[in-house]
Each structure stands twice: as C-alpha cells, then as structure tokens.
Amino acid sequence: MADDGVDIVFTPSGRRGRVARGTSVLDAARALGVDVDSVCGGRGICGRCQVHLAEGDFPQMGIVSGPASLDPLTEPEARFDARRGLKPGRRLGCHARLRGDAVVDVPPESQVHKQVVRKRADARPVEMDPAIRLHYVEVEKPDMHRPSGDFERLAQALSGQWGLDDLAEIDIRSLHRLQAVLRQGDWKVTVAVHRGVRITKVWPGFHDRAYGIACDVGSTTIAAHLCDLSTGEVLASDGIMNPQIRFGEDLMSRVSYVMMNPGGEAELTAAVRGAVDGLARAVYDQAGVDGGDVLNLTLVGNPIMHHLLLGLDPTELGQAPFALATNAALTLWATELDLENVHPDARVYVLPCIAGHVGADTAGVVLSEGPHLADELTLIVDVGTNAEIVLGNRDRLLAASSPTGPAFEGAQISCGQRAAPGAIERFRIDRATLEPRFKVIGCDLWSDDPGFDAAVAATGVTGICGSGIIEALAEMFLAGVMTADGVIDGAAAARTARVQADGRTYSYVVREGGGIDIRITQNDVRAIQLAKAALYAGARLLMDTLGVDEVQRIVLAGAFGSHIDPTYALVLGMVPDCPPDKVTSAGNAAGAGARIALLNQGARQEIERVVRTIEKVETAVEPRFQEHFVQAMAFPHKTAPYPHLAAAVDLPQPRPPGGDDGPRRRRRRRD
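RE: above sequence
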C-alpha cells in the first residue's frame, strides 16, 4: 500500500516525523512530543495552539514548505480571527490539517512550558555617562524687540544654564511640539539632549526620568535590559526565542534561506526587528514606565544577526572571504529599524563588529571583561552555535570564530532540548553502582530525593539541556561508562543495566517511564565531541598564533557558558588546561557590554578603538585547525596533558592499546 504520509518539522524544538496526510498540526505535535498548548481540547476556541507555517525551500531539512502544506483557512479559524484576531501568518494548530510536507514554528506564547531565557544583566559598577542627558531650563519669552525663534532661545538657555555651547540641532518631531510644550510649561521645560549636540525630546515642566535598553540579539535568544539612564539601575529584563529559528537553527541555514529564497532577507529582518520591538515593550511594561521615555538603545549581535537587523543582505558572510558590509559602529534613529514601541527619535547605537564571523557581541564581551586592560593572559570563549573566542592581554588581542553547531544547546541530541522547566541541567553518576541522579530546571531537589517525583509532577522530566548533557558525558567518562575516545563501553553492561545495546553501539539509560525515556546514545556523544573539538581547536589555534602553551585565566561567556560547570568543561576538553579555579563564568557578557555602552558613552569610543587593534585569525583557512580538531575529539584530549585538571579531579587511567572499547564494526567481506 502506498505511503500517504507527510513529513513535518517543528521549530524551535527541531522535532520531526512522518504523520498521516490530513492530521491536524496539534495532533502531529502531540504524536511527536512537541510542546504545544491547548486549553479547549481542539475546538478552536482558546487560540492557545497558534502556529506559524514557514514558507520556502529548507534543504537542510529536505523539505519544501508552503501554502499547499496546509488546508485553507477553516471556518472555525475564520470565526476566531473575527472574534479575537489571528496574527498574520498564524493558524490554529487544532484545525490546520497537513496536506504536504511542512516546517511549522511554535511561537513562545503557544508553548506549554514557556522558554526560560537565561540572559540577565550582571550587576557591574559602571561610571555613569549616558549619551542621553536631561536638562531642566527656563527659557526667555518671545520679545518683539529682540526677535528670535523659540528653538534659538532654548539653545541659548541650555548654553547659559548648562554650558551646552555645541548644541545646534533639534529633531523635527521635537520641533513640531516645541512651541506648544514651551507655553504649556510656562517657559520651563526639560530637554533630552543626545551627546551634547542635539535635542531629542522636550517635556513641559520638570521631568527626571529617561530610559535606555541594552539588547543582545543572539541567533537563538534575544535578551533586553531596561535601564534608568540617571542611576544605571536595571529596572526590568526579559528575553524571547529569536523568531528567525523557523528559517534555520544555525546561522548558515539562515544565510542559505536568503540565498535560495529571493527576498528572504526582508523576512528575516522583519522577524528580528519585530522581536526586538516587542521585547522593548515587554520590559518597559514590566517596569511600568512610558515607552515614549525610552530614548536610547544599544545593540550587540553576531555578524549575521547584525546585518539582518540592519536590513543588510548577509549573503557575503556565507562564503569566503566573509566580507562585512561594514564593521563600524553605527548610530541610527529608532524609526530606521522600524521600532515603534519606543520614542521614534530614540537613538540606537550598534557596537562595531570585529570580522566576518566575530561580531558586535564579541565586542560587547571584550568591553565587559576588559582583557585589553589586564596583564593576565586571558582566554574568553562565548559558547554558542558559533563560538567566538578572544585571547590576549593589554599587549595583544586575537580573535577567532569556531563552528560548534547547536549541540551544546540541546539540538542534535536524541533527548535534547533548550533550557525549560523539566529539562535535566545537572547530572551525577555513582562511581560504584553507576546509578545516575540529576536535577531539572524548576526544581531544587535531586532525582534521588524522596519528594522529587511530586515536585516535578507539573512539568515532568522532559529531556536534557546543554549544561545537562555536558555534565552527563563528563560523569560517564569519569565513572568509566565511556572511554577517552568517546565510546560508550559495552563492558560496563556487566556492572549496570543502565548500559544497554543499541543496535551496533550502546546507550546509557538516564530515566525510563513517565511518558518519555531519556537515554544518551553513541550519536549524542559524537555530536558533543564534534562541537567541543571545534571549540578547543579554535582556542588552540589562537594560542599557536600568540606562541603560548598555557593561559592564565579562562572566561566562559554567553547564556549557555554561564551555566556550564567549569570543571566539567575541562573534563570534556572544551577548553585548554587551566587551574579549575581560574575558569569562571561571565554570564551574559555580551549583554553586559551593551549595558556598559548604554550607560557610558566613553565606553563607545573605547571599544571602537580596541576593535581596530584586534587581530582576526580565520580558522577556515588555517591548516593546523583540522589537526587540533582531530586530536581534540578525545576526552579531555588525545595528546595534550591536563596537569591542572588532574591535580583537581581523579581522571581515569588511559586504557592499554587493544583494550575493549565496546562494540566494533564488522569488517566488510570482500567478494
């Protein structure tokens, strides 16, 4: 009988499968274990199951998705749209039925377990010198005997009362309202001035609050921090998944989408600008402030996100020599980025990029961590789908990018997921019994605590996120379940039922029952090996260029980096050897750098100057990268000694050649 099924891929989870033609998207999601909300039981009333059909050619998924992938809009959907409104491009998953292969995005608000975005502003002391300053002035009234315009008398007042002698311009929208505001305030007004030269807003009377937003536009998540420009206090923080994920999990997939779909860059630009705009509203609503008083924004992002946010075609970044349209810092009006939820004349400062694959986010990390100010040789690794690496001190700085892929964030892992309630984030294995215990996001108890099952009843144990898979593999290696070459050892099956045959390889069972079996497979190990080897090779290449064999300090940056246990990062060999107490997490250092640039305009000149001195090493053309990569596939490394780690951790002894490393492939018999 002919197969009448269709293939469907859900983003951002990456879950895919084949279902019968005519299946509703909601039923397909349930069958594949995809997180889609529904309260009304599929009656088309609640609208919780809204999804977005991605349109275009997705070669990395082997799918062409378009309008013909779903039935036309149904009557219940039309009624819901008339009553409560469907966002453009949205369908109700309970009534949209599959007629062809499809890529379907589940937006954050339609997910049962809303995404936990782990980007927060660090409480770092910053010298306050914002680009936007408020000035209260009293302006002379018009005089027929001394004719001059209202703006000229306002500028004169600012010069006389505040010493703003260079002020010579006013935004047209402020000029439109100036005369009415002056008279409403009885010639007493508060003026917002950008960098001492241009008026951006005028209020009648006394006004003492203006706000700014520091935003880190990541390929996976976007985070924003609302700051008081007078105190530097972070009033609200929020984050969302980057909606561009529906066009591709990784950056190069998004570039491929643009290359294969004419006009695709406009779709990606609209998606990310809409996300930033919505996030701006979310943080000022959270803080209870007026969005019209948000007058300054600073933005960081990797080069592809930088280009797409600015409306620049990223195609050149997808092929050698990876040319940027510009690497300079930019200052724009909010309206130029279609930001409607802040003051239209708000200034947007975009930090400079360093090179084709080392972006403004890395510039933010440098500004936050200050390696250019230190004597200590520091390695900074911003761990993400494309790791960005900086090495050096006040004498010399090098930078590189390394293609780690999305495995560290739970993608490409059989039971992997992003950080959300129910995801395993901490992991231990008993050395004697080889029994696991773990902690999940949203619960403070370990799995072997008596109250654990009751505590996680609401969310369940849903999968394993990036920090969890790092710890799990490190523990498997330390406990002898996995060899240094990354092979799950079949011999361990004699010691525990947790190690089970899985085709021609073995897997380690973490948890069975509860609706989902969680196990770590040989393919999972390989995915992490590839990612960590690329990360190590990039760092080692910078060390070769600088002519050093050791670093004095390692900083793990980024949302994911901030949740990696430094010791486990060393055990896996993600980074070169270093004393474990010298390996630290910096949290969202890129976002912290954006905040520094928001609150201190001198920092903008500083990072623009430093970026011009950073030397870029291109891993794609360096012959030694592949050599380092191959050696780094082992745990922690094939040949490099890890004496600092060995002094702190009881590492397994190397096995003699020819030892049992588990199942081997049969040799194919030649005829």
